[in-house]
């Protein structure tokens, strides 16, 4: 396993106060050394800011573009590989949603997100529609290579709290700085399940290796914080994959006995893995569950290319794991109305099941369902464009309105 990210949550203020970023850069450099000394490879250091409305207040949303450019330049100087500018929320003016594609277009390493559902705001139909427009616009941004990659840096959020160390979902709730660790750990499941004689043994082995790694991470984190005024927020031990077979969550699921991811039994296997992660004792933060990002996993990409794994399947698996629909390649002519229908379903799942889910859909310009897609990006596997099922149609009537509605958490029987 590797540490995918050391994510530092801070409030640089508006106008931009670079001194706050400088101190954060010093901290994450020390953190990187501490985790490397503990035996972990650290892939990146990242920065997460408060919600857009909190940073910019009454300032014009256009100010966010210049701010993002200045932030990107300062991140380069102070040792942050990527930054999350913040999250737009349903209570913000629509312009805070609408500026996100402009931010993505004007930068290379700045991410952003938008809330579509939360316990406070309910399931917001206007936010769903705005997020669908963001995805549609980001897919066609000029100068983004390869085409469609703008959506790598945007996610719609449903029931996602602050403190998640994975981008684009990361944001800070304000106040004193803190940091959290995101892992790339699908290989732990692959190794734990190999040769296991029973499901009980497979689960026990996964829990053991996760707890062992978490203990080492936590010990290093405590050494870093010491007397500093930087709080350790915890570890998001979601089993994030890398597109090789030995680091594939798809391979781990199939090693449990599922003939092919997408076949009946996949849901049970996903629930089994998620349950094991939930049993592991450590300081949880973020999703701390099972990731199934199609393009980041060689087996998931292959099964989707074979037509065995569908968008509807992924939505189903979201009920027992996270993080929703992630890095899902769609046809370039997918309409905002079709995107909104998918977003609405994810938002409903997140609120009703009281779990964090995200949506990172990637329409590919000029591509149709079934077309091959290839990437030089090392974190993506080659595959094919996935189809939105024929029954997916634009919403009408009341669900196409401008309301927000509450969905109470499902009560226990």
Provide an overview of this structure.
The chain has 413 residues and is α/β, with parallel strands linked by helices. The protein has one domain: Anaerobic Ribonucleotide-triphosphate Reductase Large Chain (Alpha-Beta Barrel), CATH 3.20.70.20. Helices cover 38% and strands 17% of the residues. It contains 13 helices and 13 strands. The protein has helices spanning 18-37, 52-56, 63-78, 94-98, 100-106, 125-139, 186-193, 199-225, 249-255, 266-279, 298-305, 311-317, 336-352, and strands spanning 2-9, 45-48, 82-88, 110-118, 122-124, 154-158, 178-184, 231-236, 324-331, 357-364, 372-373, 383-384, 404-405. Strands 1, 2, 3, 4, 5, 6, 7, 8, 9, 10 and 13 form an eleven-stranded mixed sheet that branches. The protein has a two-stranded antiparallel sheet with strand order 11-12. The longest helix is centred in the middle third of the chain and has 27 residues, at 199-225.
Could you list some keywords that capture this structure?
two-stranded antiparallel sheet, 38% helix, Anaerobic Ribonucleotide-triphosphate Reductase Large Chain, alpha/beta, 413 residues, 13 helices, 11-stranded mixed beta sheet, 17% strand, single chain, 13 strands
What is the strand and helix layout of this fold?
Blueprint: E1 2-9, H1 18-37, E2 45-48, H2 52-56, H3 63-78, E3 82-88, H4 94-98, H5 100-106, E4 110-118, E5 122-124, H6 125-139, E6 154-158, E7 178-184, H7 186-193, H8 199-225, E8 231-236, H9 249-255, H10 266-279, H11 298-305, H12 311-317, E9 324-331, H13 336-352, E10 357-364, E11 372-373, E12 383-384, E13 404-405
Parallel strand pairs: 1-2, 2-3, 3-4, 4-6, 7-8, 9-10
Antiparallel strand pairs: 1-7, 4-5, 5-13, 6-10, 11-12
